[in-house]
Recover the amino acids of this structure.
């Protein structure tokens, strides 16, 4: 019960904070899942919540998707996501690099934990340090952005920060920026979850369906709250994001 409460609170608050920015849910939520599950399983669980929440977002803003940007960025992202997810499944079976003790508890550092920790540290800094947030790429770099974002999405579930850095200069309106990012993220999620599927069947996750449903519900409620609060504060004839 404790893990359900903690994960749901994290999903709700993170969803509120990240709807309009277009990134951050996976970066924040995955470490929370990792408190209770192995890292590779935590990434897969986060992917389920991330995907379900993005489906809800698509229902809100999907009609504004820019198809040209979607194709140029999304197709490379799909193939790269498959490669990243495959690599995650491979390194998750490697033996620990070393172990250490804290008090009476022993901890192991495996290759997958080390890789994910380094990526999380980097992208956490990427999302909070102003100089990193100002990094942007031109429209001619969309294919490169799809490859990088998709690969890291498949490997660690961290795709939003890079995706936003490439899309922000793609000449999209506010609505198209949000919608296109949501659709791309969903395509990456579908791809990587198909690769993670084998791990779901061997890790006993069927026993945690209630946790997944609760976390998805919390994330969706956070998205609803983020959309409705700006609408309440602005003219009711001009919704904040979804026209």
């Amino acid at each position: 019960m404790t893990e359900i409460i903690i994960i749901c609170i994290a999903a709700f608050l993170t969803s509120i904070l990240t709807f309009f920015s277009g990134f951050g849910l996976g970066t924040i939520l995955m470490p929370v899942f990792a408190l209770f599950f192995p890292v590779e399983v935590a990434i897969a669980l986060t992917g389920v919540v991330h995907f379900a929440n993005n489906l809800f977002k698509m229902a809100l803003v999907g009609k504004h998707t820019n198809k040209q940007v979607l194709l140029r960025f999304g197709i490379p992202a799909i193939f790269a996501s498959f490669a990243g997810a495959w690599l995650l499944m491979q390194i998750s079976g490697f033996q620990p690099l070393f172990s250490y003790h804290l008090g009476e508890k022993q901890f192991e550092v495996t290759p997958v934990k080390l890789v994910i920790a380094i990526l999380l540290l980097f992208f956490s800094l990427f999302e909070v340090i102003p100089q990193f947030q100002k990094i942007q790429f031109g429209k001619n770099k969309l294919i490169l952005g799809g490859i990088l974002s998709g690969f890291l999405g498949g490997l660690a579930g961290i795709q939003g920060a890079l995706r936003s850095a490439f899309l922000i200069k793609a000449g999209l309106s506010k609505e198209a920026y949000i919608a296109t990012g949501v659709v791309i993220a969903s395509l990456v999620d579908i791809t990587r979850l198909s690769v993670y599927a084998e791990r779901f069947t061997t890790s006993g996750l069927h026993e945690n369906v209630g946790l997944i449903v609760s976390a998805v519900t919390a994330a969706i409620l956070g998205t609803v709250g983020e959309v409705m609060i700006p609408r309440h504060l602005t003219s009711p004839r001009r919704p904040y994001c979804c026209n």
